[in-house]
Amino acid sequence: MTKRILCALLVLCALCSCALAEELPDSITMKAGESLSFSLPFSGSWDSDAPDVAYAEGDTVHALSEGWAQLVLMDGENEQTVDVEVTDAVPAVIREAIRIALSEWEEVGEKRLDKSKRGNKYIKWWGYENIGWCGAFVGYCLDTAGVPLEPTDTWRKVKPHEGGIPYSLREAGVPKLRTGFTNMERITDVPRPGYLIIFGAKGYYEDVHVGMITDVSDRGNGVYQIFTVEGNIGGSTVKRYSFLYDSLAEDKTKNMSYLPEEAWTQEGVYYEGPRQTKSGGKKYNWYVTALCQTWQ
């Protein structure tokens, strides 16, 4: 009996040793948004020459955005360098949708578009005139790129969508989009390129507008810099915006803020925090209501 117990303990120890984290390598390739834990050669503090690309805390390396970063683990006597390559996790078809959205922005050039099928291809794509066409704009871009779309008017009964593959809904109404993505269990607080971003206005409506996220930069502590491209905005045209979004804000209606002016670096982008809806002589500040996962 003693020998059997000893053998069992030896087998258990072997299994435990196999389950130990991989030793820290000299180089790592990771996907954006991925985190990996390693067995460290010694305890120490980390430094990163590109913390917006990758950084480390404790025994875990975090990849944020595409690019290269060199991480250094130090304890005063020892030092180990780790080269991290972060590849783009965004599916190719979603990247194509982003490219199309940006090319539409360049083509429109902030020209005011009417709300008929004659001069507005996004409304022509949707098939109904005289609508707020922000949802039709993002739908047109996703559809043109080849992203599969749930058929129109199925938003109430669409089921959870497993697998995380690129997917959206053929809808233009903002409340319908949010309900559909909620039913598919594809609502999140963490922004990624290609996600749809739904805005609400405090004291007005939760679903007033939708755009597409084109770029995201993690600023730490749950704060992200977001770039968007949006249709039916600023006088019925297409514009780009950038702002800070606090995914951990205690008051959700205050989760948008302005970037410092020194960060206003891209031409043609409106660096605005909480925009406003004006109605009945009142002004209602915008906030981010939901992020819809067109991919996972």
Summarize the structure.
This protein is an alpha+beta fold. Helix content is 21%, strand content 34%. The chain has helices at residues 2-19, 92-108, 121-126, 134-145, 174-183; strands at residues 27-31, 35-37, 45-48, 54-57, 60-63, 67-74, 79-87, 149-150, 168-169, 187-188, 196-201, 209-220, 223-233, 237-246, 256-257, 269-271, 276-279, 282-292.
Give your account of this protein's structure.
With 296 residues, this protein is of the alpha+beta class. The strands form 4 sheets. Strands 10, 11, 12, 13, 14, 15, 16, 17 and 18 form a 9-stranded mixed beta sheet that branches. Residues 6-19 have low confidence and may be disordered. It folds into 2 domains: 22-87, Immunoglobulin-like; 92-292. The chain is built from 5 helices and 18 strands. It starts with a helix and ends with a strand. The protein is 21% helix and 34% strand.
Topology, element by element:
Elements: H1 2-19, E1 27-31, E2 35-37, E3 45-48, E4 54-57, E5 60-63, E6 67-74, E7 79-87, H2 92-108, H3 121-126, H4 134-145, E8 149-150, E9 168-169, H5 174-183, E10 187-188, E11 196-201, E12 209-220, E13 223-233, E14 237-246, E15 256-257, E16 269-271, E17 276-279, E18 282-292
Parallel strand pairs: 1-7, 8-9, 14-16
Antiparallel strand pairs: 2-5, 3-6, 4-5, 6-7, 10-18, 11-12, 11-18, 12-13, 13-14, 14-15, 17-18
Helix pairs in contact: 2-4
